[in-house]
Amino acid sequence: MLLEKLNSFLPREVVFPLHMCFTPMMILFFCKEYARSLDNIMPFLDSYGAASGQSINNDKCFFYLGKHALQRESNIQSLLGFNRGKVHFTYLRVPIFNGRPRECHLQSLANKVRSKLEGWFGKLLSMAGHVQLVKSVVLCMLLHSFSVYKWPSSLICLLKKWTRNFIWTSSCNIKKLMIVSWDQVCCPKEEGGLGVRNFDYLNTVALYKCVWNMISTYTPWSSYFKNRFTISTCKVATKYKCSSIWFGLHFVFPQLLSDCRWIIGVGRSVIFGLIVGLTILLFP
Predict the structure, then answer these.
(1) In this predicted model, what pLDDT tens digit does every residue of 91-115 receive, in sequence order?
(2) Cα–Cα distance, 190 to 210 (Å, whole number)
(3) Number of folded domains that form the chain
(4) Are residues 177 and 132 in the same domain?
(5) DSSP notation for 31-80
(6) Which residues are registered as beta bridge partners of 275?
């Protein structure tokens, strides 16, 4: 019964993600501002509360509007009983916002990294301990966000500065003149480095993996993004897309294609050939 109510949100012949994203602390709905869609939300929440034994707190519930639905704010508020929230919020530790990722959007996450570095008693640890903390804690805090957004270069430089100072001086604010470059520190141990990941490369590689999963898998998630950004195995939309993640995808997609090669194998799953007029020449 709950699944039927969820399906009522979905417009016909439209590829769209699941209309309910659930975590133990939050539920997100995606729907049009039409009265029919809004009328289905409250009965669904009532059915969910009856089945789970949990109640919905209207004071902690918010709705977010697009630019074309601002005139219907009062009607939506009266139907749902929720207050309108600001678009810039955090979901699963990832900032959600409109437009291109800027320093003001991701500064809070960068500040958490700095607070983590300043909270450690660096003077009581060896240099190997500093390196291990950066590799195991700091990089894990950033990896999920790196997989979603192309970070501004100014924030990347700040992260480099803080981690470099912490490794060498046990403090983010104290700078020490070193004869070893940061690029050498980020090299693998086999090449004479400390094995610390370069933030620039880590951000690019994480976006590589995100785009590769889009074009190589056939899941509802990948199907939605392929239609949203006109992504195929050979091209991506060139015009501006009003999405905060589009800038990162558009940045890495040409590089990803240049590094990809088709593996023909025995020809069972890949057909390789040339089209000459109306004649198709296949190569086994």
Answers:
(1) 777 888 888 899 989 999 999 999 8
(2) 28
(3) 2
(4) yes
(5) --S-HHHHHHHHHHHHHHHHHHS----GGG-EE---GGGGGGHHHHHHHH
(6) 280
pLDDT average, residue stretch 250-269: 74
Determine the pLDDT at residue 161.
92
What is residue 83's three-state secondary structure? strand
Q: What pLDDT band is residue 68 in, cutting at 50, 70 and 90?
A: low
**Domain end residue (candidates: 85, 118, 151):** 85
Question: Are residue 203 and residue 281 in the same domain, yes or no?
Answer: yes
Q: Which residue has the tokens 């016909």?
A: 12
Expressed in percent and rounded to 5, the helix, strand and coil fractions of the chain are 50, 10, 40
284 and 175 within one domain = yes
For residue 275, pLDDT beyond 50: no
How high is the pLDDT of residue 33? Answer: 54
115-138 pLDDT, tens digit per residue, is: 888 887 766 778 888 888 888 888
Does residue 150 share a domain with residue 17?
Answer: no
Q: 195 in the Ramachandran plot: left (φ > 0), alpha (ψ -120 to 50) or beta?
A: left
Measured distance CA(108)–CA(118) in Å, rounded: 15
CA distances from residue 40 to 5, 6, 20, 66 in whole angstroms, order as listed: 7, 8, 13, 20
* Count of CB atoms situated within 10 Å of the CB of 250: 19
